[in-house]
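Hey, resending since the last one bounced:
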Amino acid sequence: ADQASTLAGCFGLMNLFARSLGGMLSDGLSAKFGFRGRIWAQFLALFFEAFFLFGFGSIDNSNEWYVALIVLVFFSTCVQMAEGT
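The structure tokens again:
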């Protein structure tokens, strides 16, 4: 039960801030570089989405469960950031 609450808590907390983080990144780059900055913010979010998804796919049973959780949280954070850009 403790592990399940940890898993649920990680995803819940990540969803609270990740979309706003993507919006703040996009706004910051837009202020400095204009529309091209927004495109770069979107590109970076999608690039790191792919990076962490590849990492998640590379995890096998020799790793502990929390390694998969950490990579999955980073992947999901990038997904939410991309939705906020």
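The helical segments are 2-33, 35-57, 65-84.

Sorry for the duplicate.
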